[in-house]
Amino acid sequence: xxxxxxxxxxxxxxxxxxxxxxxxxxxxxxxxxxxxxxxxxxxxxxxxxxxxxxxxxxxxxxxxxxxxxxxxxxxxxxxxxxxxxxxxxxxxxxxxxxxxxxxxxxxxxxxxx
Length: 113
Description:
Elements: H1 8-19, H2 25-32, H3 36-48, H4 62-93, H5 103-106
Helix pairs in contact: 1-3, 2-3
């Protein structure tokens, strides 16, 4: 059985049927051939934020967009941190050298008087 999709307009009209016309959720669900739990969810979602309710497929609410942006930023910062950690460990391995010369290179350096 394929999942049905309803347009934003259909959902809003279904919610208005319940809220403005006083039709019970059960009766509206039967009339519209929508399960009453789905209709209750629509009423609740519309009641919490009518402007942002039912954003549609692929559309996110502003809060969800911000969360997604912050997740991407955290991932980027973790990658940068890991790169810096790697660079720090390489630097500590080379700390015994002077100006990039290893100890065996120093012994071969010409003497200056």
